[in-house]
Design brief:
It is a single chain. This protein has 385 residues and is mostly helical. 65% of the residues lie in helices and 4% in strands. Helix 1 (4-13) packs antiparallel against helix 2.
Length: 385
């Protein structure tokens, strides 16, 4: 005999429009005894998302974008309850689970509204496409879930995060530049040290991948900025504009650098854009959208060349080290080839996209200047290493 849950899901998930959701929600609202089974079904949909390559942050980000914050909280609750069944979780999962939004209380503001929102979430989860996996799923063999940390890695990452946090907080461009410069130098040197260590110990020969959200508005400019950061840190980036994320392929130390630096530069760029825009509007200009678009495009373009220059300088300095110089170039070349091949296997068919050009000269000028202030050049005098 068909259960209330079966009838509710059949109405909501396989009937287009709000009428199906309303019908399914009405059935569930009249059957409070079905709540436990409703959650179990929701957990099953979440589990299917893992099988299709999705991670917790990916699911919550898409739910928030396509539905709303309340639905994102419902998804977070299902994720938190579903992952309790696993003995082991991949490292990236742990950090993503820690950042999930709080789950709203059940049956609020009323049973019908709660059921309707829950069914809308399940409808979205059911429609998730298969995407490229970027790591082992939960419950995989334990050796696939953990990677021993490199020597000194936690302390290095703590220093980098602290420098970037100060760069984001300061109101002085010269100080932000110096702090960001120091952080990038640490990242570049750490990457080179990791590469040489892996070559000596025959470890970490296989690149990994991570996904980073690219949210509206001005997602094209943000994706270009992320691509520039990835390229400068010896990674490859592939943007999925439909699903709102970029997949970055590279070795673990470089992926961590990309995540940290991209987040910081985006924060710095957004703050600089807001200040520049306020000045423009105070002068009587109202073309806010075109100003912002042009600003961020210029910011991304300028930073791309600056970051590439910074990486080249760090590599040249490492080559000058007689202890490592002879081995460095072959090691880096081998890692670049491995990353390129891994990206090609994950994404055998990619396309280019036409970028809408900048149309606001003031926005472009201010964006370029902001990129210069966040550049990866030499530190000003007086900054201690």
């Amino acid at each position: 005999m068909e259960s209330v849950i079966d009838r509710a899901f059949a109405a909501a998930l396989y009937t287009e429009g709000d009428a199906g959701l309303d019908a399914g929600a009405s059935l569930l609202a009249a059957a409070p005894e079905s709540e436990a089974e409703l959650v179990r079904r929701g957990e099953e949909f979440v589990r299917r998302a893992w099988e299709r390559g999705w991670l917790p942050a990916d699911v919550v980000r898409l739910v928030r974008r396509d539905l709303d914050e309340h639905a994102a909280g419902l998804a977070a609750g299902l994720i938190a309850s579903e992952v309790r069944r696993y003995d082991g979780l991949p490292p990236r999962w742990r950090s993503q689970l820690d950042e999930l939004p709080a789950a709203p209380p059940a049956n609020r503001p009323d049973r019908f509204s709660y059921a309707s929102a829950f069914l809308a979430l399940c409808r979205l989860l059911l429609a998730l496409p298969a995407i490229e996996p970027v790591g082992p799923p939960p419950g995989a063999a334990r050796e696939a879930l953990t990677r021993p940390p490199a020597a000194g890695e936690p302390r290095m990452l703590t220093r980098i995060r602290a420098l970037l946090a100060k760069a984001e907080a300061t109101g002085y461009p010269e100080e932000a530049e110096a702090l960001t410069t120091k952080a990038q130098e640490l990242m570049a040197r750490h990457s080179i040290d990791e590469a040489l260590l892996a070559a000596r110990t025959h470890g970490d020969r296989t690149p990994g991948a991570c996904r980073i959200g690219v949210d509206a508005p001005y997602e094209t400019a943000k994706a270009i900025l992320l691509d520039a950061v990835a390229s400068a840190n010896r990674c490859r980036a592939v943007w999925n504009s439909d699903l709102g994320f970029t997949t970055v392929v590279g070795f673990e130390a470089d992926l961590e650098a990309v995540e940290l630096l991209h987040t910081s530069l985006l924060v710095q760029g957004t703050a600089a854009m807001t200040r520049a825009e306020a000045g423009q509007r105070a002068g009587g200009r109202k073309r806010t959208k075109t100003f912002r678009q042009s600003f961020l495009l210029a910011y991304a373009q300028r930073l791309g060349s600056r970051l590439a220059d910074g990486t080249a300088r760090a590599t040249a300095e490492a080559e000058g080290d007689t202890a490592a110089g002879a081995a460095l170039l072959p090691v880096l070349a081998a890692r670049d080839l491995a990353v390129t091949e891994a990206a090609g296997q994950m994404f055998p068919r990619t396309t280019t996209t036409r970028v809408r050009g900048a149309t606001d000269l003031d926005g472009w000028t201010h964006g370029t200047e902001a990129a210069d202030r966040a550049r990866m050049g030499e530190e000003p005098r007086g900054i201690r290493r």
